[in-house]
Write a structure and sequence with these properties.
Order of helices and strands: HHHHHHHHH
Structural class: mainly alpha
Radius of gyration: 19 Å
Number of domains: 1
Number of helices: 9
Strand content: under 5%
Distance between the termini: 48 Å
Largest sheet: none
Length: 259
């Protein structure tokens, strides 16, 4: 078989594998909510075992998974049309890795193996960061299909996984009764919120990635609303979210002015 004929076949196999990976993630996520391996689904664990975790957002925030999955489905359709494009093939490899790790995370988290779930979460995060850099997300402000069907879906996905990684690490430390090296849980939560806001600010400033920043605003408002009984945490989340929203507005104005 010649190289010219092998490449389309490899692209087809990769496109099929990508579609199967996304479909498997959707199916496993749905089944884990209906028939959780450990007896409780992710939402139930968040509201029982982890109910006192200070960095946990309000329940409504997790509805963003619906947006993420819609974006992934849209990308799957798009990648079939563009499967021979080298960039799409590279993105597909990263997405397959992220999907496999996410399926693993669902099982580990619902089985309450929080420490091991961090490893799966870091694999998801790493794969999405590689995809993000490959797409140069945010630098292209055109209305090309690739922006709406590749860049924006992966920006939203990466932003939420960035927030989820912070929550996941905090959950594992909480379950392990970590003493915090002398700092209170409130102090550590405020530190984590500031670190997260810094990540969002970098993405906004360097990439002008409005979708990425908007996800952090969504998450921080949800944290502020859930933690109203702890003003230091609630106000830190609110102020950090407000700062991100302000930077979001500035970058949006800059993008409009340059258009």
């Amino acid at each position: 078989m010649s190289a010219s004929s092998a490449q389309p076949k490899a692209s087809l196999v990769l496109a099929i594998a990508t579609s199967l990976a996304v479909a498997s993630t959707l199916i496993v996520n749905t089944l884990s909510n209906l028939f959780p391996p450990g007896g409780q689904n992710v939402g139930e664990i968040a509201n029982t075992v982890l109910k006192d975790l200070l960095v946990l957002p309000a329940n409504y925030a997790f509805a963003i998974w619906g947006v993420i999955y819609v974006g992934l489905i849209a990308y799957c359709v798009y990648q079939w049309q563009q499967r021979s494009v080298p960039l799409v093939r590279r993105v597909n490899v990263g997405l397959i890795v992220a999907c496999i790790a996410q399926v693993g995370w669902i099982y580990l988290f619902t089985l309450k193996l929080f420490g091991w779930s961090i490893l799966a979460m870091l694999i998801i995060l790493g794969a999405l960061m590689v995809i993000y850099q490959q797409l140069h997300t945010g630098r292209d402000r055109s209305f090309r299909p690739s922006r709406w069907l590749m860049q924006i879906p992966f920006s939203i996905y990466l932003a939420w996984i960035s927030v989820a990684t912070i929550v996941n690490v905090a959950a594992a430390l909480y379950i392990a009764d970590w003493t915090g090296w002398g700092l209170s849980s409130v102090a550590w939560t405020m530190i984590l919120l500031v670190i997260g806001a810094g990540i969002a600010a970098i993405a906004l400033w360097q990439h002008r990635d409005l979708a990425f920043g908007a996800v952090f605003v969504w998450a921080y408002v949800a944290i502020a609303l859930r933690q109203t009984e702890l003003p230091p945490v609630s106000w830190t989340a609110a102020v950090a979210g407000g700062a991100i929203a302000l930077l979001l507005g500035v970058q949006s104005w800059r993008s409009t002015a340059k258009a």
